[in-house]
Amino acid sequence: MTMIGWLQIILFCVIIVALTKPLGWYMTRVFNGERTFLSPVLRPIEAGIYWFSGVDEKREQHWMTYTVSMLLFHVGGFLIIYGVMRLQAVLPFNPAGQGAVAEDLSFNTAISFITNTNWQNYGGESTISYLVQMLGLTHQNFLSAATGIALAVALIRGFSRASARTVGNFWVDVTRCTLYVLLPICVVYTLFLVSQGMPQTLGDYVEATTLEGAKQTIAVGPVASQVAIKMLGTNGGGFFNANAAHPFENPTALSNFIQMLSIFALGAALTNVFGRMVGNQRQGWAILAVMGVLFVAGVAVTYWAEANGTSTMHALGLTGGNMEGKEVRFGIVASSLFAVITTAASCGAVNAMHDSFTALGGMIPLINMQLGEIIIGGVGAGLYGMLLFVVLAIFVAGLMVGRTPEYVGKKIEAREVKMAMLAILVLPLMYLGWTAVGVVYPAAVASMANAGPHGFTEVLYAYTSATGNNGSAFAGLTGNTLFYNLTLASAMFVGRFFMIVPAMAIAGSLAAKKSIPPSAGTFPTTGGLFVGLVVGVILIIGGLTFFPALALGPIVEHLAMNAGNVF
Amino acid sequence: MLREIRPAIVLLLVLTAITGLAYPLAMTGIAGAIFPAKAQGSLIERDGKVVGSALIGQEFKDDKYFHGRPSATLAPDPNDSTKTVSAPYNAANSGGSNLGPTSKALADRLKEDVDKLKAENPGAAVPVDLVTTSASGLDPDISPEAAQFQIPRVAKARNMPEDAVKQLVDSNVQGRLLGLLGEPRVNVLALNLALDRTAAK
Q1: Which of A28, A323, A548, B20 could, after both became Cys, cross-link A135 (CB 3.0–4.6 A)?
Q2: From residue A375, how far is each of A126, A336, A385 by CA, in Å?
Q3: How far apart are CA A91 and CA B133, in angstroms?
Q4: pTM value?
Q5: pLDDT tens digits, residue range B136-194?
Q6: Are A54 and B104 inside 8 Å of each other by CB?
Q7: Which residues in chain B touch residue A245, judged by CB atoms under 8 angstroms apart?
């Protein structure tokens, strides 16, 4: 570890905190339907879209209608992706002549993108056409991100409203998020990325003759426009197989730094939106503090482990850290930081191969996902995931003192706690359950690339990533098989929607409750005690759930490595 | 609930057209106008022919060129399309080795490569990036140490004084952005092109 390395990490944290307030202010205005500086341009377009689509923007929805609208929207999104993938051979914008994508891979990819996971069982440049990249994947990058944010805003309204029957209008929230938040940032962001060297072209793959006379086919494409939303929307599905490690998908140290910032920016800002909407910004800062504590701890472990390298390397006299699967322009620190950010935030883009990380360095990304993607988390999903843990923490605090717990003026009662537990328990059921199947079913075992405990970790990582809607991988695992395509799709589906529906039920239940003013007996939820309590609840619930699995994978691998064993 | 069906279809199609077609196509047009060379992939031409991209590494095996990092990219096996074969720096199929810290295959490969490099330059410490595969398999860069390590070999193969080669290396080192972001590095293709230009003079 070096001083310059730590300075890069500190700079990252400082900028995220600085962005939280202004972005939170802007997004609050957007979701409250207020005027913004973009309204003169965008308002006519917005009104036109509502008129054309038959949306009455004044009419708000009950939480169930809101949820059903969201689900209907996803059915259509699924059909579009599945359709263009199956038909890409006969559709335009296919200069590399890619053939139809197989049924199971198309199914997996469609589920993957509507759930904001963006697991890549396909290799971008070798499997799919430019049209699929744009019409299939870029479009769903926007809409799955907008959906996540809309749901978080609906849950916030549940906390901030009193005796209300409705939580907002899904169509309006999605449209405003797309038009006012995601698109304007992406337009500027795309141009920045191209200025760093990222291609944005519909032209053919380039045929080059290298200095030594060999032929090199260089894949290009409309990369920048997709990468902008891939990062901002915490989607993470790469244009290329190597994702943000590919020099075209992350050309410079600056493009890398901005990409890292854009993964966290909206998720961090949503904590401020929460604070503003419930009438006390310090409530938002307290939640960001919980996230920050867990994040910095993770960064420190991964950076230390990667800078330290492996026993094999030490034995050969190699110094400078574990560079297997990392790019020179990023080095140890920017690769470690990126890995922790992308798994904390449910993004899943990678600028280094997590499969080649040291055992402990690769364990932190795994833990980040197993905690439920709540450290900043996916845009929107991270906030509603964190609020579920807050509900539990408040409940625990209430048990300790024997009072009905309350949070931001709302009584937390049996229904909220049951729903929160349901959402939190369904995740380990998916990733532990499928991992158990994956390590004994012969066709699944054959997909492991590494032997020994590392092979187990590959399978555990895959289902954890799918369930957490992250999308990063221990990529040695051959995921493009019938077994993995179908089981990973089920994990992604359950991980997304079985968390959303209980969260929305909580939103509806809270919105209907009266608001009670704080009294002398109210547990303050803006101070250090609250932050410590939530961190504790997260670590206890998380630790009890997945520590045994970690002991079989990365922990035993670390001990084996120190003992000089290879597999 | 029924009145949500129309927006579910129409709004989806409208937003899909905006974000999936209008946005990427407009950005392609604008980016192509403002940054034409970069939008096409930062291609490098020599004598009218494309020799590669400034951002994409390519394979160098000849002693007279600086070598990049090992690459783990694959290509379909020409004899059996269900299998793959090693194809270093395949810029149409990026990817890493994905070998873990306790992989025997990785340990064996590292040992073999370290031994080979030690034989080439016995006095110097082997730089770690010269024996590890990159994440993309297309890493265009090596560390300044990895470039310095190869100076004796390149100078000998080209019959040039080591000092002259060292000067070229030094002038091709890119530092950290603002002294802070990223890592110091040398673009291998740019360095080799500069070598060829010097030799031509």
Answers
A1: B20
A2: 33, 16, 9
A3: 37
A4: 0.96
A5: 999 999 999 999 999 999 999 999 999 999 999 999 999 999 999 999 999 999 999 99
A6: no
A7: 94, 96, 134-136
